[in-house]
Write a structure and sequence with these properties.
about 290 residues, alpha/beta, Rossmann fold, 2 domains, three-stranded parallel β-sheet, about 40% helix, binds guanine
Length: about 290
């Protein structure tokens, strides 16, 4: 008989609730000094998933006392017009964070658009100035999803120093930045990807596995060291149309020490860290004003 040993869940909903309480308190303190943190969200086109994401971002702002504006544009919007809107928001004193929802329509150069956002208002952390700041360990804005992964690890008081962290996925939005964040916390980091020769040999050595591929069942129970911490960044639909991550949750939870569920793990943390970044953008401005 095998004894089932379920791992501990890392609950992103509960952690978000806790963090958002503090965000609301800090936002109210700034508002009392006539600075209400403000986020501008730009959506171009009618991608259904993007519509849900931006609605959730705007709602999260309202729930925590942040000001937000949602600018929706048709798919036909030209690149120059979008760049002009960003330039105007860069100079808008009521806006501390600017987020351009991705993906953008194919006729718009996303890289050019992201580089047009002032790094001081780049609360998504996608500008090369912020990516560079993360690489050299300087203050800047960390991208929200990997930042949320780090907060989840912090919430279980996980000591990364000397541990082996394996990241699966090398995207600019999650894989690469989370690898740098783990490295900054003194983990030994291995980044695996679609061309990795023997993924299982890597993951079996891992104390922490972060999976950010965008494909179901990338990590199965036989690939996990007993007691390891597993963070699932994936957001997929299974054959029944139910939301699921990149990890075979049912199998892996029997082996792992800690695991994030999907939904309810990393997902809610992404928006929470967007609120944190927007709040920090406003706080930095308030401190700069107070010092001048
Ligand atoms: N599309 C999917 N995820 C994200 C995100 O974190 N930020 C932006 N701007 N667009 C996205």
């Amino acid at each position: 008989m095998t004894i089932s040993r379920n791992s501990h869940l890392m609950d992103g909903i509960a952690l978000s609730k806790h963090l958002r309480h503090d965000i609301a308190r800090r936002a109210a303190a700034l508002t009392a000094h006539d600075i209400t943190p403000g986020l501008a969200v730009i959506l171009v086109g009618d991608n259904p998933a993007s519509q849900v994401y931006v609605r959730n971002k705007v709602k999260a702002c309202a729930d925590t006392g942040l000001h937000s504006v949602l600018e929706k544009y048709p798919d036909s919007m030209g690149e120059a017009e979008l760049l002009a809107r960003i330039e105007a928001l860069n100079h808008d004193a009521s806006i501390h964070g600017i987020l351009v929802q991705l993906p953008l329509p194919a006729h718009i150069d996303a890289h050019k658009v992201l580089e047009a956002i002032s790094p001081a208002k780049d609360v998504d952390g996608f500008h090369v100035a912020n990516a560079g700041a993360l690489m050299v360990g300087q203050p800047g804005f960390w991208p929200c999803t990997p930042y949320g992964c780090m907060k989840l690890l912090e919430s279980i008081n996980y000591e990364l120093k000397g541990k082996h962290a394996v990241v699966i996925g090398r995207s600019n939005i999650v894989g690469k930045p989370v690898a740098l964040m783990l490295l900054q916390k003194n983990a030994t980091v291995t980044v695996c990807h679609s061309a990795t020769a023997n993924l299982k040999a890597m993951t079996l050595q891992a104390d922490v596995v972060v999976v950010a591929v965008g494909k179901r069942n990338v990590l199965t129970a036989d690939m996990v060291k007993p007691g390891a911490v597993v963070i699932d960044v994936g957001m997929n639909r299974n054959l029944e149309g139910k939301l699921c991550g990149d990890v075979d949750f049912t199998g892996v939870r029997e082996v792992a020490g800690f695991i994030t569920p999907v939904p309810g793990g990393v997902g809610p943390m992404t928006i929470t860290m967007l609120l944190v970044n927007t709040l920090e953008a406003a706080e930095r401005l308030a401190h700069a004003k107070a010092a001048s």
